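Query structure, 132 tokens:
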């Protein structure tokens, strides 16, 4: 995943807003990042029966994922920079047209809850079953 260049109204975003955007962009691409950066992933061991893996992004950004070893699902991600920490907990996983989607998210910034998101439905456009 290349460099992130967030902008607001065409002007490069500054910290910490720009950092937050970069961490959110990385969060949305976690499976891809894990595959692309496989050789440089840092195993942080286990905590609460979850495997912790750190992904180095553009310095000084990192993304730590907490993975349930029984299901191999990412159940939480924590994006960090010097001045910011954004976390998302994922739940209510459902398979939709061959894609595993978390229908529930709880987001926090600097330890304070910022959002709780519940999806009612999801669909792949076009459906994966029709792509070939």
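Result returned for the query:
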């Amino acid at each position: 995943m290349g460099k992130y260049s967030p902008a607001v109204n065409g002007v490069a975003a500054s910290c910490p807003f720009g950092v937050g955007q970069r961490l959110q962009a990385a969060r949305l691409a976690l499976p891809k990042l894990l595959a692309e950066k496989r050789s440089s992933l840092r195993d942080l061991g286990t905590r609460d029966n979850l495997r912790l893996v750190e992904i180095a992004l553009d310095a000084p950004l990192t993304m730590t994922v907490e993975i349930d070893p029984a299901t191999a699902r990412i159940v939480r991600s924590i994006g960090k920079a010097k001045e910011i920490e954004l976390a998302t907990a994922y739940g209510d996983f459902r398979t939709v047209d061959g894609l595993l989607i978390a229908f529930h998210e709880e987001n926090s910034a600097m330890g304070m809850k910022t959002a709780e998101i519940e999806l009612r439905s999801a669909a792949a456009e076009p459906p994966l079953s029709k792509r070939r």
